[in-house]
Design brief:
alpha+beta
Amino acid sequence: MNSMKRCVVRFLPAAMVILAVTLAAGPAAAGLFDFTHGRIAAPGSDLYALGTEAIEQGLGGTSYFTNGEGRVVEVRAKEMASGDLRVTVRRVHIPKNYVADTHDGTLEAERTYTRLEELAEESPWVGGYAVLPHNEGYDAYKFGVMVETEFNRNHSSGN
């Protein structure tokens, strides 16, 4: 019984310290890693407008936009506990008259480019870009990533 009491007296303070550190580390670490959610958008800026649109209309804070000329922009936004709006922007470009490795890829590039032009005329504009419907925006962005990857692979210094 005496040895049990000594174990409890020795390990109870250590367990309490570990518990306290665990409970306090969550919120503190979240504040330290806020930078992983992108830059802070200044109210009134185009970045702020895009981020606000992504939060209001996008799925999970993600929205897609186009300039109608082959540019597709993925915007991810998150409102932080401090009230700051952090926004990450990723851009891809589908060139007009893009020639892919396959005929089907070239046709897909033409269809996507034409559809982006149409959507840019039909959709509202925010922060210098036309808002894309989520599904079409996601597909266009994914296709744009594939186009840029293929282009970079074909034009790397090793080839």
